[in-house]
Amino acid sequence: MRGRVGIYTVAGVALGLALLLALLGAGETAGALSDWQALVLGLVQGATELLPVSSSGHLILVPWLFDWTYLEQHDEFNQTFDVALHLGTLIAVAGYFWRDLVVYVAAWVRSVARRSVQSADERIAWFLFVATIPAVIIGGAGESFIADHLGEPWQIAILLAVFALVLWVADQRPTTRRMDDLSTREAVLIGSAQALALAPGVSRSGITISAGRFLGLDRDAAARVSFLLLVPITLGAVVFKGTTDVLLGDLPSGWQGPFLVGVLAALASGLVAIDFLLGFVRRHTYTPFVVYRLIVAAIVLLIIATGWRAATF
Length: 313
Prior knowledge:
Layout: H1 4-24, H2 35-50, H3 55-66, H4 70-73, H5 75-96, H6 98-114, H7 120-149, H8 153-170, H9 184-195, H10 204-214, H11 219-247, H12 256-281, H13 287-306
């Protein structure tokens, strides 16, 4: 799917199907999340998960801004729908980087069988493996705390601004390293940094890109590390939540249509976001994303200050 024609063809077909399903109101139930709302949230998820601007923050701020209350009032549905949207971005990343993923999985298996690390591909494969572990451990341990204490609009605004400055500082670092130069200790550092993104407003891609730039990776390599790290952590979440909440769970009626529309929309915008970001950072800095985050943070705080929307749910 690396060719631009293929990328945009798949994105166009996915978006077209999502629009058709939304027009038909496929699988909708009155009073629940509509297909059109799922379409908007899917497009937001695909773009903001892969750009360094915080998907979890935007997925909270968009319903808050438009007063879509269903997800906030049905937390179990909300969490499962969030995983469904991540499935869309997972498909986008896996489709875009499938050749790299095949290479790294094969390299990791060879390394395990040989009980040694010899090639650059094997070093990168082990780096990705080790970097995933802290996010899994910290995420599992802190999920309940984060759900109970973080995610209010005022908190998201502050985190958007703070980690915008982190990204800006990191992006000033000179380029001194390649992906295969990174050590196991640095994999743990990036993996631990990735776990911070459990707090809405931080941004998983933003914090991993920042960590990569702090370690001396160039802008393209930092983005690629961020994209590749999305695959194992998101795949695990999709399999776990899909099994417990969808296959074995009891979701309310009307979930099928919004879930499918959201996945297709996230796939479409995710593919475009990957291609855009990799092309953009080869020629430019991450400063536009820093500015965007600061503007969104200021708008959210202004909306709260004027009383148009409450600071909390």
